[in-house]
Amino acid sequence: MAALNKCRNLTSLNIHAFKVNYYPRINCKRNLNLQEYHSKDLLRKHQVSIQNFRLLDANLDPNTLSDFKANEYVIKAQILAGGRGKGHFDNGFKGGVHLTKNPSEILPLAKNMIGHKLITKQTPKEGILVHKVMVAESVNIIRETYLSIVMERTYNGAALVASPAGGMDIETVAEKTPHLLKTVPIDIYEGVTDKMANEIAEFLEFKGTMVKKCAEEIKKLWELFVKVDATQLEINPLVETDDGRVVAVDAKINFDDNAQFRQKEIFALDDVSETDPREREAASLNLTYIDMDGSIGCMVNGAGLAMATMDLIMLSGGKPANFLDLGGGVGQTQVSAALRILESDPKVKAIFVNVFAGIVNCATVANGIVAACKENPPKHPLVIRLEGTNAPLAKKILEESGLPFNIINDADEAAKMVVKLAQ
Which residues form the ATP-grasp fold succinyl-CoA synthetase-type domain (predicted)? Predict the structure, then answer.
């Protein structure tokens, strides 16, 4: 979505795609991850037209499908990655998406998926284990369109983004055929009016009675967007079927993390099964952990300093193994846990602590490091640079601990030292 955001001047970030090369994005929060069937269920609960579907798990209970009839079925492995249709499984089975008109083929197809790892262009090399398979009615599509509602800083609020060219990368549409992309600001008090919904439906090239049907779906999507505190609701494609329906075939929903307190049911659906355990532990402590592929663990505070730190490491001939942002207001217990999380990465050969304290107290960081190292002696050399609030006291705490720290005030020299120790 980064290219789409750029093309329509959006500033909301897809935080889950956190790295470009070795740079973390400035916003360091992990998105709520919903499986496809969860998103569809939310749409259904808000009266948005979707394909009927059922869900199969490892039990492969045939009763799940006993009352489910369709002319054709689509069987889709449920993982948090794209490219499923062109993927393959670790058991040799090809494709994470299959079509069949024969109900007796559904369970055998699902059996080849559930309990096996699906490998696509967007998964790790070893693939992602499939726990559930969604079985949905296949619809006969006449046309595919694109519709999304996003928070748009240019308009200080939400906006509708629509295109009659759906079912493809919207970034490509924006780049090659910008006249097929329409953005309309939404007044938060008025919402999506009948006039606006009808105009968007006509822009999407719906005709006759289909205009009203599409307009109704657009208004329902707006109601859903508001009720669940979404920051992005993308339907691609929103289709017209041969039996005169407007159906949301695929959906992507992002939520405002600040609304978690009033969207507890939705946030309880968060699927963390595919998330690095270190990242999960860090998130539980209000820390941000990102895995990389080098040999130097990095503990910093703030994404700006993180990027500068990793630049210094790269320029000195090294490569970051991971990145852990302490953020602001961190306590001693969190610092100790942060060091333990960094050391648990088998790629790590040395750790660079680089903190420039404002809100964060250097003495708190120093006490956390000392406590962690006394409880579990460090496996790897530590290079520590602490500047800012209570830096002299922090240095004294580290020196008087009697632990073998490499305390260096100059950032360049500290980076060179940690690269040397990691070799």
Answer: 33-240
304 annotated to bind ligand: no
Amino acid type, 258? N
Which of these ranges, 32-36, 273-277, 297-301, has the smallest mean pLDDT?
273-277
Catalytic annotation, residues: 146, 234
Residue 244, annotated as binding a ligand: no
Q: Find the DSSP H helices in 46-84.
A: none
d(CA 379, CA 388): 28
Crossing angle of helices 209-227/194-203, nearest 10°?
Answer: 120
Q: Please indicate if the annotation marks 186 as binding a ligand.
A: no
> Which residues touch 229 (CB under 8 Å, ≥6 apart)?
255, 256, 259, 262, 263
Q: Where are the alpha helices (DSSP H) in 119-208?
A: 170-176, 194-203
φ and ψ of 227, to 5 deg: -65, -30
The per-residue pLDDT for range 165-189, each reduced to its tens digit, is 988 878 888 889 999 999 999 999 9
Residues paired with residue 357 on neighbouring β-strands, in sequence order: 388
Token code pair at residue 256: 């405002």
Given a contact cutoff of 8 angstroms between Cβ atoms, the answer to whether 330 and 285 are in contact is no
